[in-house]
């Protein structure tokens, strides 16, 4: 692709002859260049020149008149240009000629004029500087004479005038030696005058820690001049006077306000003549013993000080001096911070004397702060505080009471405790089977007697691990003693393994825990004779003997199971077979710490103090509706004490609250406080606001008790669940290794429940104790029932193994036996007990056994789906199993 030729370049056809010839020359090589070729190029050029001349001549001849006119015009322009150039040259010579030119002559004239003007200005400046220096010299001479003679007020006026004069400085004197020397001499004289004034002030007003001396006049050092104190103060500069007044205010406030209001002292006033013959006024302060001191004397001492200053100092101050007003706020603050607030009494008996002191302080404020010092606008701090003196007293008492409560709450436990009684409505069966009643196990000593082994249990238990929080997360190992006792018969089964519960180890262990740990040891109780549970086909052999068959499960139902327990309801058919109960009221005792009793005594004393203060009419009633009535703050402190206990004790005793006996003990304390507080709320003497606060605390204490109780059980249940997690839902128990793991887990559950029972038995009331262990046992049984019933297939070996595992927990029935002559009442507190007992039988029962039990209504605890699943898991698929399942699917039979 060819490079495009720019448009402004001539094309080849428009090239002139010279360009054409040059192109040819450039294209001709050295070998082809010869004479003839060069001659042809010269001929071409000459021909082109000749042709160009001919064209020019033709062009001129074609318009000759116009050519002549342009020619003549060009010649005229050239002539005028020559004339203009000659004239410019002459003008340049006229202006710039060094000798006769206009510009050099003008510059020379201006130079001479500037020199003359400078000489005149120098003369004027010299004259003004000399006059200025003469005036300064005269003023400086006068200032020096005044300073030397000690006439300091006149010297101050003189140096102020000269200072103004020096401010009008002359530019010609700046930096000169004479001006610098003048300034130096002036500063020396001024500093000497100020120094003499400060020295005169320091000898006129003397303030130290022991005395104040004020001299109305003072002689100047090294002079015979005597200056009056007003003249000295008036002569001081504003800055200097302000600094001196600030120092004076600080000294007066520190040594004669704070000191006199903070401790006992005596003040003496005197006026004497000095050696120089001048009068001086003196105020002296002497410390006094504190014994028998009246606090009103401190106010009188400060009044004496300000009377002294008002008589001998304030009149000498300059007219517009604000020094007295600057003392008002420090004085008001000192009255409050050094006298009134620290002296605020802590008892009602000291209030009358304190109120007199407050009235005295208010009068002092009105007479001195508003009168003498002149603070009319802001001098009412003491009056404002005095109007609310009742509120301040109650606030101080509130802080003291709360501090007393805090010390009581965080105090190390001293082991003191007592037993409180609670009324429980129990159900008594008419057939002679007695529920747990008040016996030696709960016949505690007198309520006020210190218990020996309740809160400071001496059980040889392993230490619970410490956790943070309101409940324990402990996972204690089984006690060695319990494990050793169960070596021969670890599950409490009979020799024949027929399901008889022989919980000798548990009975012997629990008897020591229940045999009145606060009194003398009772007679040993023989192991209870628990009715043997029916096994396999023994129920079929006892057909028609309903009374004997059900005697094993006829247990009293003293209270319904706790609502928080994850358990199924008790069998309806069992309830129908049981005789109708009748109610009886029983007294049960539970352990309460001495700390709770002391705390409640503090609450009662606080309420008594509030009531006594409100009825005494010692404090004035506030007409301001925004303030609460007298005694309200102290009355509300009773609720704050309980709030402080609820919030602080779980934190301060966090390490102890890792154990169930302590958490349930704290729950007991909250219950007792709740009951006792309810007795107080039944009174009509409480103020409305106080009652409202106590009602809130009353409800919160009850809620807190329930929460700690429920959380303790929940934590224990979670611990049992974690132990049962090792069973892995009882899958594969046919293998010996898996069976050993499941056996160990179930045995550990048994030991953990027994250990939990031993810990909480001395703490809880009887009924609540059975509810607690019943909830824990019921949760463990429910978990096992859920896992076993969920197994899809159970072989014959597994059914025997599972039966053995279930029978391990039959030993827990001994926890619910008190009288060996009566059956246990485990059913009343463990709703899943019957269901769990029948599960162990179903695991080894035949289809005929299951059908019979189902028809008799003995399996109503089981859901239909659960029964169908266990039949399918236990038996092979046969027509008999199918018929049995169809019968089960028709629902439980209706019992008449």
UniProtKB/TrEMBL annotation:
Mind telling me which InterPro entries this protein's record contains? Zw10/DSL1_C_sf, ZW10_C_2
Point out the signal peptide segment: none
Residues in ZW10 C-terminal helical domain copies: 745-888
**A biological-process GO annotation:** mitotic spindle assembly checkpoint signaling
Q: Would you tell me the Gene Ontology cellular component terms?
A: cytoplasm; RZZ complex
User: Which Pfam families does its entry note?
Assistant: ZW10_C2
Coiled coil located at which positions? none
Q: Where is this region: Disordered?
A: 431-454, 470-527, 542-565
Biased region (Acidic residues) positions are: 444-454, 482-508
PANTHER family reported in the protein's UniProt record: CENTROMERE/KINETOCHORE PROTEIN ZW10 (PTHR12205), CENTROMERE_KINETOCHORE PROTEIN ZW10 HOMOLOG (PTHR12205:SF0)
Q: What is this protein called?
A: ZW10 C-terminal helical domain-containing protein
The major lineage groups are:
Eukaryota, Fungi, Dikarya, Basidiomycota, Agaricomycotina
């Amino acid at each position: 692709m060819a490079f495009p030729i720019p448009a402004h370049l001539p094309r080849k056809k428009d090239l002139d002859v010279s360009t054409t010839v040059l192109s040819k020359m450039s294209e001709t090589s050295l070998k082809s260049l010869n004479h003839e070729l060069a001659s042809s190029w010269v001929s071409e050029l000459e021909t082109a020149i000749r042709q160009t001349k001919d064209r020019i001549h033709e062009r001129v001849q074609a318009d000759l008149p116009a050519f002549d006119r342009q020619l003549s015009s060009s010649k005229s322009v050239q002539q005028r240009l020559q004339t203009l150039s000659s004239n410019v040259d002459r003008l340049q010579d006229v202006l710039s000629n060094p000798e006769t030119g206009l510009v050099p002559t003008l510059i020379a004239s201006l130079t001479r004029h500037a020199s003359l003007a400078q000489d005149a200005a120098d003369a004027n400046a010299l004259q003004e500087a000399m006059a200025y220096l003469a005036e300064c010299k005269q003023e400086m001479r006068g200032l020096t004479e005044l300073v030397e003679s000690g006439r300091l007020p006149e010297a101050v006026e003189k140096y102020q005038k000269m200072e103004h004069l020096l401010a009008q400085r002359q530019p010609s004197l700046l930096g000169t030696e004479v001006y610098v020397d003048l300034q130096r001499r002036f500063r020396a004289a001024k500093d000497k005058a100020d120094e003499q004034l400060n020295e005169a002030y320091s000898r006129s007003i003397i303030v130290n820690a022991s005395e104040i001396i004020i001299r109305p006049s003072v002689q100047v050092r090294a002079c015979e001049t005597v200056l009056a104190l007003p003249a000295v103060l008036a002569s001081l500069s504003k800055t200097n006077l302000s600094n001196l007044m600030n120092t004076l205010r600080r000294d007066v406030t520190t040594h004669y306000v704070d000191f006199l209001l903070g401790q006992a002292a005596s003040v003496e006033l005197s006026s004497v003549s000095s050696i120089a013959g001048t009068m001086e006024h003196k105020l002296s302060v002497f410390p006094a013993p504190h014994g028998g001191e009246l606090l009103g004397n401190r106010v009188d001492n400060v009044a004496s000080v300000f009377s002294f200053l008002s008589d001998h100092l304030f009149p000498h101050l300059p007219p517009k001096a604000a020094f007295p007003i600057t003392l008002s706020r420090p004085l008001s603050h000192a009255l409050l911070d050094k006298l009134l607030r620290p002296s605020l009494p802590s008892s009602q008996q000291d209030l009358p004397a304190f109120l007199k002191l407050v009235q005295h302080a208010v009068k002092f404020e009105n007479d001195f702060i508003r009168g003498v010092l002149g603070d009319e606008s802001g001098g009412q701090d003491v009056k404002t505080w005095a109007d609310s003196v009742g509120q301040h007293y109650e606030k101080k008492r509130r802080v003291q009471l709360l501090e007393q409560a805090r010390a009581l709450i965080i105090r190390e436990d001293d082991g003191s405790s007592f037993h409180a009684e609670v009324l429980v409505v129990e159900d008594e069966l008419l057939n002679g089977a007695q529920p747990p009643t008040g016996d030696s196990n709960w016949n505690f000593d007198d309520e006020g007697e210190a218990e020996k082994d309740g809160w400071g249990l001496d059980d040889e238990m392993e230490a619970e691990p410490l956790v943070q929080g309101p409940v324990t997360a402990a996972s204690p190992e089984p006690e060695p003693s319990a494990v050793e006792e169960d070596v021969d018969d670890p599950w409490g089964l009979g020799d024949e393994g027929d399901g008889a519960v022989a919980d000798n180890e548990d009975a012997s262990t629990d008897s020591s825990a229940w045999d009145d740990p606060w009194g003398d040891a009772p007679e040993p109780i023989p192991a209870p004779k628990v009715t043997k549970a029916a096994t396999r086909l023994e129920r079929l052999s006892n057909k028609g003997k309903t009374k004997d068959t059900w005697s094993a499960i006829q247990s009293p139902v003293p209270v319904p199971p706790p609502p928080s327990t994850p358990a199924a309801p008790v069998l309806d058919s069992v309830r129908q077979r049981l005789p109708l109960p009748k109610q009886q009221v029983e007294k049960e005792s539970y352990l309460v710490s001495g700390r709770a009793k002391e705390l409640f005594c503090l609450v009662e004393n606080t309420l008594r103090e509030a009531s006594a203060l409100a009825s005494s009419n010692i404090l004035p009633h506030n007409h301001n509706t925004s303030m609460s009535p007298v005694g309200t703050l102290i009355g509300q402190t009773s609720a704050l004490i309980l709030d402080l206990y609820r919030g602080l004790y779980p934190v301060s005793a966090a390490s102890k609250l890792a154990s169930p006996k302590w958490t349930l003990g704290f729950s007991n304390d909250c219950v007792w406080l709740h009951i006792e507080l309810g007795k107080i709320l039944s009174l009509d003497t409480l103020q409305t606001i106080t009652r409202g606060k106590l009602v809130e605390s009353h409800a919160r204490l009850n809620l807190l008790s329930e929460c700690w109780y429920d959380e303790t059980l929940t934590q224990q249940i979670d611990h049992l669940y974690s132990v049962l997690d090792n069973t892995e839902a009882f899958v594969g128990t046919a293998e010996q290794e898996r069976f050993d793991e499941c056996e160990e887990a179930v045995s550990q559950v048994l030991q953990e429940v027994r250990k939990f029972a031993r810990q909480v038995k001395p703490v809880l009331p009887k009924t609540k104790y059975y509810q607690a262990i019943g909830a824990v046992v019921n949760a463990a049984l429910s978990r096992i029932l859920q896992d076993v019933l969920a197994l899809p297939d159970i072989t014959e070996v597994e059914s025997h193994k599972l039966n053995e595992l279930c029978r391990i927990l039959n030993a827990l029935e001994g926890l619910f036996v008190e009288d060996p002559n009566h059956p246990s009442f485990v059913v009343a507190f463990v709703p899943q007990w019957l269901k769990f007992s029948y599960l162990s039988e179903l695991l080894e029962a035949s289809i005929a056994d299951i059908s019979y039990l189902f028809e008799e209504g003995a399996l109503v605890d089981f859901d239909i789906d659960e029964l169908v699943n266990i039949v399918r898991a236990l038996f092979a698929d046969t027509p008999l199993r199918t018929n049995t399942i169809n019968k089960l699917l028709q629902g439980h039979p209706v019992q008449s």
